[in-house]
Amino acid sequence: MKNRSFMKLKSRRNASYIQSLIDGIRANDSNALAALYSLTVTQLYHDLYMQIRNTYEVQDCIAEFYIRFCHTIGDSETPIQAAMLLCSLEDDILSRYTAVSGGIREDIKPRPELSDTESDIILSDLLNRLRMPENSIPLELINEYDVYIKRKSKALRWIIAGAAALLIIIPLLFLNPAADISETGRLSPFTGRPAYALVVDNILPVESVTAEINGNPVSIMQESRSRYTLLPQERGMMTVTVRTVGLGSASRQIDVE
């Protein structure tokens, strides 16, 4: 059985924290064991209860589980090895329970969630059986710290994602659009003079398109997202300027005769 909370211990972002807990448990640190307990006991209780269906027997199995883990933790050098050991112990306890009990028994009043009070009692009994001192940091504070670690990790991932997005977006802000202007070969029904076509190829949206001849503005009609029609009414050098929503711009000129 792959317990989800055990698998999270293998995550790289949790590696240094989990390694410190492993080292602490080896050094008989009750707070380190309490922290690992808080990270894994809820999912462990759920997995065992789904198979055993008896609240009190599940609690006994949980105590046995962590006692056996502490006795065999010397075989775990890394968080990955610790996670695999935890998975192995859970499977072994379930297999042995099924063989001894002869099957699954239904609890009259099933309680699929482990209450805070029950969790504290199990931990206290566990530490007593391991002859470890009581944890000096209350379990509720450890739980809050674990939640903080998860929130901090999630916030860090959002920050990294935002920074990556900025690295992509910022160069686009300075990217100049490609613009091509040409005579359409037809007269405009509005001016009776030759019309000119402007085609813009860009990634960012166009903010503005302006055109002028001899200092006078030229009428512009937008035909589509990237195509514009220019309607000059006098001869001269027509200058067209395209600006995007970023800092990109492009200017083109064509002689209107």
Mind sketching the topology for me?
Elements: H1 4-8, H2 15-26, H3 30-52, H4 55-72, H5 79-101, H6 116-129, H7 139-173, E1 178-187, E2 194-201, E3 206-213, E4 216-217, E5 219-222, E6 227-231, E7 236-244, E8 249-256
Antiparallel strand pairs: 1-2, 2-6, 3-4, 3-7, 5-6, 7-8
Helix pairs in contact: 2-3, 3-4, 3-5, 3-7, 4-5, 4-6
Number of contiguous helices: 7
* Cα separation of the termini: 82 Å
Roughly what is the average pLDDT, rounded to an integer? 82
Strand order of the largest sheet: 1-2-6-5
Described by strand count, sense and barrel closure, the largest sheet is: 4 strands, antiparallel
Instruction: State the helical fraction.
Output: 40-55%
Give a brief outline of the structure.
The chain is of the alpha+beta class. It has helices at 4-8, 15-26, 30-52, 55-72, 79-101, 116-129, 139-173; strands at 178-187, 194-201, 206-213, 216-217, 219-222, 227-231, 236-244, 249-256. A hairpin with a 6-residue loop joins strand 1 and strand 2 (194-201).
